[in-house]
């Protein structure tokens, strides 16, 4: 795909790419290159540490950092992958509370959000780290981790889930997901899409049949890039 955005008011916006938990810059090169090819100059890549994103003491500071990046720039487009939505959810809450949500032009949710539960953590940790241990052993290890950081993940996730379905979350959103994703549930994402549409918020969807978690760009590159390109062109508020 060789399309380039020509609208200068869009190209002057900032791109924040929030990677999946445990992601490294080299894993996000294809996404950064995509935005460069679209014509964007200001692209900030964030690679959240893995387990730290389930520790509220680490999630909140990262969320505040993203919030500061958004409010200190003219307009921002955020592309968020997988559990990178956890710290971003705090950023969005700060934006709503400070009445600055309009600084966030649009949001691309790629294999995201992942409902924050103990089972989703076990699945994600196993897949991303290619762990062969039995699930009972991993289950025990992670419960010990929760105890050490004083975090009850199933309780905390209720607040996250409320934000995802909130009428106040008016930012235009594009959800990119797959029926084959064992980490980011198709059923859960569709429930958010349905709720956001019922609220009248701009909500678009790109649903694949067979691509794996955070790998849509590898399997469906053309369709993936064209959808993002069109979404950005159509849904930035001050074109």
Give the key terms.
239 residues; six-stranded parallel beta sheet
Walk me through what this model shows.
- 36% of the residues are buried.
- Helix 2 (29-38) links the parallel strand 1 (14-18) and strand 2.
- The two termini are 23 Å apart.
- A six-stranded parallel β-sheet has the order 2-1-3-4-5-6, sandwiched between helices.
- The protein has a single domain, classed as Rossmann fold.
- It contains ten helices and six strands.
- The chain is of the alpha/beta class and 239 residues long.
Q: Please name the CATH topology.
A: Rossmann fold
Percent in helix: 40-55%
Q: What is the rounded Rg?
A: 17 Å
Oligomeric category: single chain
* CATH A-level architecture: 3-Layer(aba) Sandwich
* Unreliable segments of 5+ consecutive residues: none
Number of strands: 6
Helix-strand topology string:
HEHEHEHEHHHEHEHH
Structural class: alpha/beta
Counted by DSSP, the helix tally is: 10
Please give the structural blueprint:
Blueprint (H helix, E strand, L loop, with lengths): L7 H4 L2 E5 L10 H10 L4 E4 L9 H16 L4 E6 L3 H13 L6 E7 L7 H12 L5 H15 L3 H12 L8 E6 L7 H13 L4 E6 L7 H4 L1 H15 L4
Parallel strand pairs: 1-2, 1-3, 3-4, 4-5, 5-6
Helix pairs in contact: 3-4, 5-6
